[in-house]
Structure formats: C-alpha cells, structure tokens
Amino acid sequence: MHRRTSIFAALALSMSLFSCSSRPDPETLVMLIESSPTNLDPRVGVDAQSERIDNLIFDDLLSRGDNLDVAPGLAERWEIPDPLTYVFHLHHGVKFHDGRPLSSRDVKWTFDSLLQGKVRSTKAAVYRFVDRIETPDDYTVTFHMREPSATLLWNLSDGAVGIVPYGSGTEVSGHPIGSGPFKFVAAETDKEVIIERNDEYWGGEAKLARVRFAVVPDATTRALELRKGSADAAINALTPDTVLALEREPSLAVERAPGTVLAYLGFNLRDPILKDARVRQAIAYTLDRNPMIQYLWRGAAQPARSVLPPQSWAYEGEVPPYGHDPDKARNLLDAAGYPEVHGERFHITMKTSTDENTRHGCRNAAAVARSRDRA
User: Which residues, in sequence order, are CB contacts of 208 under 8 Å at separation 6+?
Assistant: First the structure.
C-alpha cells in the first residue's frame, strides 16, 4: 500500500523476545509496544501498532500466504472474469463480536464509507480505481473498476482494511467491533490496549485467552520489563545489542524468523539537489552497508535490492546492486556539478525518527556530502 525508496538495509529477521516467567494472570500475555495505536478503526489507522492490533480484532476480505501471496480470508474464493470485475464469495456463518452476522452489506459499507468520504482516511486513495461495489446476495461482493488495478487484491488482504459492521462511523476508533479472533476490551492512551479471545471465531479458537499491549516508549525500560518478568514478549522493539544481551538471560528466549521490516532513505525529488538521479546514485554508492549490518544490526539484516523481501513471490533479485564504491560516487557528483570545495560538496537536511538504529544509520549516510573518503 505504500511506495518506498530503498537504498540500504532491509531487516532480514523479525526478532521476538519472550519471557518465561510466572505471571499473576497466566491467561494474559503482556506484549510490549513502543507507542499507543493512533486509531483502532481499520479504515483509518496506518501506523504499525494500529495495524497490528486491528489485525487481531478485524478480518480482511483476503489474507496473505507464507510467500506474501494473496490467500482466502473472509472471502473463501474469488473470480476475475475481466480486468475490471472482481467477484468475491464470502464464508457463511461469520459473526461480528456483538453477534450480528457478517454479510456482503458490511463489506460494501466498509469500502463505500472510505470512497464516499464518510470516514476521512489516507487509505481511500488506494481504492481510487474502484468505480462501484455491488452485492447481488448476502455472500457475494462485486468490485467494478474504472480501470485495471494490479494491486487491488493485495490492498484487500491482511493489514489493509478490516471489515466493519454496516453503518459504522467514527465511533469505531473508541470501541472497535470486528469479526476477528480477538475482541476489544479496553484502551487507555499511552498506557495499554486489552483484547480477549473470541470464543466463537469462525477461523478457529485462539490459544491465548487475553492479550494486554503495554505501552512502554523507552527501549531500556522495555528490556528491564522483560528481564524482571513483568512482560512476556516484544517484537522488533529492542536494539540488536540489547537483544544479544538479553539472549543470555536464562528466563528469556529469542525467536527469529524472516521479516519484512525495511530500512530506507526516502528522497524529496522536488529538492534542487536530490532531484538529480546522479546525486541519489552517489549516495547509494557512498553507503557502506556491510559495517551497518555487522555492527548496528548484529547480522540480523541483509542488503536490500528491492522494497520486497526475498521470501515474497514477487521478489526479483537480478537487479543491478549499489555496492560501496566511493570513486564512482565522486565521479557522479563531479558530473552532476557538485565538485568538492574545502572537503564539502553540498548540504542537505535529513529527518529521521528517534529510533536508535535509524539515527546511527543516518549519521553514516549524512557523510556523503562532506566526507573525502566517501564522496
């Protein structure tokens, strides 16, 4: 759903750290998160925490397979009779958490509320090629397109837009009602979000009775909470150095699996310097990604050649790489009209998050405009 420009490292591993402690309520898993979700309406929330929690409360029309291919979700099957028509057939017997049956009317309302502006959301732009949605019966939904859209199926799958009940407005953010494996219980900004198992879930009962997402902004505090056993799990929420330290704790376990987290630099193409492709290429050649991977990410990453991870069905690895080549970077900048003067070529402004890994990486990248060794 998002276009991103990548020139350096894509995290290859999703690292989860679990505590093996005895908890006051063994039926509740405490998951540490860095910030509160911005909006639990699945039509609106686009931040990581909102999408993570929404994915447990709401079902999407489709899901994603192990290779990030599109798989059945609420729609058990679909047909594409022509490039402008998508016909989805819904599972029977699905219910929302309040007992209402989920039907094609709810699917149509979910997307119509975006397309017609009943709910203000940046996600609406993703479905701009949808002309209209029809519901010939309770279990059939037909999307009619204005023009072909290769990304429609992907943008109907996990993490895209969960289905809300017919008539749902902005109140969904404060009290979300979905059809997913967990039901919303309570939320307090900057403190916690609590969900509990949906015992009538159509897709099979969850193994956990309850999950409490505890908001802990500080990375050191998150590590201490895990270490002392007052929290059970954290996903990609700690620096690699901290993970290595905690891995030696007998009461903690680290699980690693292929991930899709992407570290990237996004360029402002309207900037008079950065609009020149040679400058952007020089920055790519300047960055020495291997030391970043070795020392910053402790080997838990690999160089990115695409916005897609290698495990994706659509990944294409046979593309020209941007290896570390300072000489080529210098030649490109000279050709672009930015000769080195007193050790500098130009000044650009870089904005980044407060994440420690990102700050370190950006300091390395910022050297491109002034370092004789790099550019």
Answer: 27, 29, 197
